[in-house]
């Protein structure tokens, strides 16, 4: 991916750096800018659960095996933990830490973790004159009709609301901290390497892949051929993240492909790649407030960032198969 920036000899902070997207950012810099100082800040996984029974934190040390940078175990809700960052002159902050479970309704915890901590990260950036690239989400759109376009939001869960609140905070910084560059990226349905430890919240790609490897027909909602998502490979997400650093002004951008695909497509491609003819198991969708069609409007993302999604769903799944097989049968712990 082409960028005019040289990150060598820069100090880079990645919050949530032991998670799916955060760890991929860390290894991108390690592999491409060996002189960059990369700091991973993550609270790491505990056995603490949300009210819906899912894990509260998904950061996992196994995502960082072979990472050679600095690791700090800290919680973004803990100001003492954040004070550890005062030892560094930080050039770029990639803020990925969050409670990201769209089916969690622990409102106080989600808002405190996702919104309150954002003020603290902005304060750190202001002291260091850092560029911030933060994770927003397509959940801000709720069930609005496609294509999802920035400026039209209707979140239907606490997570989506918290991300919209972050976007509004970043927008206000144009006036309160005009010298600061803050870029928000609304990720759509991301899949790919290092997502295994998200457990039940990992993408359909790896979950259905493991069902097939268990010789179980993939379980899909009824009429899955009519349920569409904008699935985007992690490498294209990293492309958008890196290109965001070139901006000199604040911005908010959708990160998807603009080409939605059906749940049925996922199953069909996986079965082809895994030489399976198991068919599918269909069951009623149990969820209310469900997104039946997402499609990122990426016109401004292309124009402003020079972003162009490169990996088709077929290519992305094919390249992912070795890792899907590698993690088959393993525990999330």
Output the keywords.
13 strands; 333 residues; globular; Rossmann fold
Note down, in words, how this protein is organized.
The protein is α/β, with parallel strands linked by helices and 333 residues long. The chain has one domain (11-283, 291-327): 3-Layer(aba) Sandwich (Rossmann fold), CATH 3.40.50. Helices cover 34% and strands 16% of the residues. It has nine helices and 13 strands. It has helices spanning 20-32, 79-83, 107-128, 158-176, 204-213, 234-244, 263-273, 299-305, 313-327, and strands at 11-15, 37-42, 70-73, 92-95, 131-137, 181-187, 189-191, 219-221, 228-229, 231-233, 251-255, 261-262, 281-283. The protein has a seven-stranded parallel β-sheet with strand order 3-2-1-4-5-6-11, sandwiched between helices. A two-stranded parallel ribbon has the order 7-10. It has a two-stranded parallel ribbon with strand order 8-13. Helix 3 (107-128) links the parallel strand 4 (92-95) and strand 5 (131-137). Helix 1 crosses helix 6 (234-244) and helix 5 (204-213) packs across helix 9 (313-327). It is globular.
What's the architecture, going by CATH? 3-Layer(aba) Sandwich
According to CATH, what is the topology? Rossmann fold
Q: N- to C-terminal separation?
A: 34 Å
Percentage of residues assigned to helices: 25-40%
The backbone outline, from C-alpha atoms, is globular
- Structural class by SSE content: alpha/beta
The count of DSSP E runs of length 2 or more, i.e. the number of strands, is: 13
State the order of secondary-structure elements, H for helix, E for strand: EHEEHEHEHEEHEEEHEEHEHH
Strand order of the largest sheet: 3-2-1-4-5-6-11
Total domain count: 1
CATH superfamily: NAD(P)-binding Rossmann-like Domain
Q: Please report the first level of CATH classification, the CATH class.
A: Alpha Beta
